[in-house]
Amino acid sequence: MKNPLLGLIAAALLLGGCAHPSSTLPLRGTGDLGVVVERATGTLQLIESSTRTSLARIDGLGDLSHASVVFSRDQRYAYVFGRDGGLTKVDLLLQQVDKRVIQAGNSIGGAISQDGSLIAVGNYEPGGVKVFDAVSLALIADIPATPLADGSRNSRVVGVTDVPGQRFIYSLFDTGETWLLDFSQGNDPQITRFENIGNQPYDALLTPEGRYYIAGLFGENGMAKIDLWHPERGVERILEDYGRGEQKLPVYKMPHLEGWTLAGDQAFVPAVGHHQVLVLDSTTWQQTDAIDVAGQPIFVMARPDARQIWVNFAHPDNHQVQVIDSETHQIIATLEPGPAVLHMEFTARGDQLWLSVRDGGEIQVWDPYTLKQIASLPADSPSGIFFSSRAHDTGL
Amino acid sequence: MAVSVHCSRPLLLVAALLLAATTAAAPLPTTERQQQLANLLLQDCGSCHGLRMTGGLGPALTREALTDKPRDSLLATVTHGRPGTAMPGWKALLDEQDIAWLVDRLLEGAPQP
């Protein structure tokens, strides 16, 4: 073989052929791939944003009622956290499950470490966090959460997030704590506990550079902020005065928080139990506005250029999506993609927005600049959409 | 309080008869509504209780988990929610028929995976 490139291609094809019955998979990258969770059937669709197509369906992932996904730093593998405690490593190139372990009875989500070597999973049952080797899925550390006062079980864990410095952070729903695990010195982590952060933290976000961890509170007003440059300063409450004295609406679905709520020097967060998106100055963390929207917000996501904020809603307003101008805070569009819009995901540079229409049985691709739908793909009760570009975002 | 000693039995009987009568007489939701409710049970209840009702942020609602739970208390929980927890009251979105139908499906072990 005279051409070294041809030799490489042939070798890659041979390798692929060894591991997969189909030796016809083309040589390719994975940077424009993603996965869509089909939650009722426990399957994933492998999607490609460049062509706006579905490449494969991968099954055998168990109960994906509430599933989230992180990616290996080479963007080859997706780690899927399932409701049934399953942790599944999916090979995007070979389009198949690589490894799967049932690590708990009931889990909520997880994170991958800064160096890509550790996977942390947050569990409801048994309440706590387990940490696994990202290659083999072998158990590395088991950190039970605080037992409840009656001793019946441990607190449920929410908002597991990776933090720079080979650390993970998460909150305890039942006992109102935040724990910071530091794996920088080895596999026996140093644990820092923040107590009394507030009542019933339901999820949390990490600002994109990894400095601030902010947990949303379900059981009381406000959010709990920790400055990870200065953990010794403890927890600071923000948004405490929001909604005080007002009757909360029944909350039919818990909102979600992630780093995508940051748009430049502003943070846009869902108001729990209100038809509003709250705006904070992300340097002072003071509230600057409250934007009236069509329902109770679930995901509040900035377009990657920070110029627009897209919002979807809880039942019974979940057929709509609203787009907010990040500068004027005006609603610039109210879209009706279809019944039960569950999740949205921008491509890394924001040229496309993918959204899942659960009860319409489709995934839609929108151009967020023209606000027009540009593609639709059939899917079985689609929920979360995750692009492999998340591999290089801290806190996602 | 003293009165109840004398009246409790007949009153209870009347109450039980009334309850039985209303339960038996409560018309079922239309077929179309039942389909909507079945989807709501699977997907929206499933958001917190799991699509297989094995629990999540909310407790498990499998038939086994509900064995010792009186139907009336389940009806009350769905209608009014449980203050201090994440369980909302559904009465703004569902009427009594809807809620009774949903609770009866849960007691039968629905939704099946």
From TrEMBL, chain A:
Keyword line: Signal
The UniProt record lists the keyword Signal: yes
Record bears the keyword Signal: yes
Signal sequence, start to end: 1-21
Alphabetical list of Pfam families matching this protein: Cytochrom_D1
Domain of life (superkingdom): Bacteria
Gene3D superfamilies assigned to the protein according to its UniProt record, in alphabetical order: C-terminal (heme d1) domain of cytochrome cd1-nitrite reductase
PANTHER family membership: DIHYDRO-HEME D1 DEHYDROGENASE, PROTEIN NIRF
Protein name stated in the entry: Protein NirF
Organism this protein belongs to: Halopseudomonas bauzanensis
TrEMBL record, chain B:
Pfam families recorded: Cytochrome_CBB3
Family annotation (SUPFAM superfamilies): Cytochrome c
Domain Cytochrome c: 29-110
Keywords: Heme, Iron, Metal-binding, Signal
InterPro entries membership: Cyt_c-like_dom (IPR009056), Cyt_c-like_dom_sf (IPR036909)
GO molecular function: electron transfer activity; heme binding; metal ion binding
Superkingdom classification of source: Bacteria
Signal peptide: 1-26
Signal recorded as keyword: yes
Gene3D superfamilies, A to Z: Cytochrome c-like domain (1.10.760.10)
Protein name: Cytochrome c55X
